[in-house]
Automatic annotation (TrEMBL):
Native organism taxonomy: Bacteria, Bacillati, Actinomycetota, Actinomycetes, Pseudonocardiales
Molecular function via GO: endonuclease activity; exonuclease activity
Signal sequence annotation: 1-33
Pfam families: Exo_endo_phos
Boundaries of every Endonuclease/exonuclease/phosphatase domain copy: 73-237
Keywords assigned by UniProt, alphabetized: Endonuclease, Exonuclease, Hydrolase, Nuclease, Signal
Gene3D superfamilies: Endonuclease/exonuclease/phosphatase
Protein name: Endonuclease/exonuclease/phosphatase family metal-dependent hydrolase
Highest taxon of source: Bacteria
């Protein structure tokens, strides 16, 4: 696992590449570019958003491989997005085209009729390429935002240096900066479920290297929604990897929304979903 002394995310990512983690990258579009990435620009100074941020976390179990697959979860998620009109949607266990479909759903639900998205595939240990859904599309994590990307910013994404050697799916993370007033960074991830200590190590890397590096660059408020597989808020494993002062709330099982200290949890609720094995988690974050 990477040394916490890294203070620049590009330094951390360069370290990943030296270690042979070719999928750890920054891209203009966020879609699995390989090869040497360009250094991201400095983020704007960090102030809390002027208004609450509404985050919808979803695990859609849409690979077509897992037993929880129904083939209906994306349509159900689109209906929830149209009904709730969140600011940000964080997505786990989705195919690449699912993210685009949900981007369109959010665009229809919000004033101005526009949205942006990012996607990062997990990696297949057996092939070294992107992990695939049964339909052949890339499988991984996504973000959808009603706010546009911050001009000149890049999408950050990567494969964790620590993985469960018995699981062919190598876990990934993805982050982007979006133009709230002021800007806010948003990340998502789906940590290992097969080995709890691996999940803890991935969580420590995410917050100790990725998030810390982003904060060191510019300090924008950061929100993460994801399936961390580390239990509810009283889990000592979860507490060991979350930064001091973080605001967070969970669904009582595996999913959480976490925010840096510029934000606090104003309200949260779960949304029953019949087409996947996880509820939706809708969280409103207010300026601290």
């Amino acid at each position: 696992m990477a040394d916490r002394a890294y203070r620049g995310l590009w330094v951390a990512i360069a370290g990943c590449l030296v270690a042979g983690l070719a999928a750890c990258s920054w891209t203009a579009t966020g879609v699995n570019a390989a090869g040497p990435p360009s250094a991201p620009p400095t983020a704007p100074a960090g102030d809390p958003p002027a208004a609450p941020v509404r985050v919808l976390q979803l695990n859609l179990c849409n690979s077509g491989i897992a037993a929880c697959y129904t083939g209906r979860s994306v349509a159900e998620a689109a209906a929830v997005i149209r009904s709730e009109a969140p600011d940000l949607v964080t997505l786990n266990e989705v195919c690449q085209d699912d993210v685009q479909a949900l981007e369109r759903a959010l665009a229809r639900a919000v004033p101005g009729g526009a949205a942006v998205s990012a996607f990062q595939a997990a990696r297949d240990r057996n092939t070294g390429e992107a992990y695939r859904c049964r339909n052949g599309q890339q499988f991984g994590n996504g973000i959808v935002s009603r706010w546009p990307s911050v001009p000149g910013s890049s999408v950050g994404s990567g494969i964790y240096p620590l993985q469960d050697s018995d699981d062919p799916e190598e876990r990934a993370w993805v982050c982007m900066e979006v133009g709230a007033t002021p800007a806010v960074a948003v990340c998502t991830t789906h940590l290992a479920y097969t080995d709890r200590q691996v999940a803890v190590g991935q969580c420590e890397y995410l917050f100790g290297t990725v998030v810390e590096g982003m904060r060191a660059r510019g300090g924008v408020p950061l929100v993460l929604g994801g399936d961390l597989n580390l239990g509810s808020g009283d889990s000592p494993d979860l507490g060991s990897c979350l930064p001091s002062g973080s605001a967070f709330v969970g669904d009582g099982e595996a999913q959480l929304v976490v925010a840096t200290p510029e934000l606090v949890v104003d309200s949260s609720r779960t949304i029953d979903l019949r087409a996947t094995d996880h509820p939706g988690l809708l969280v409103t974050l207010a300026p601290s």
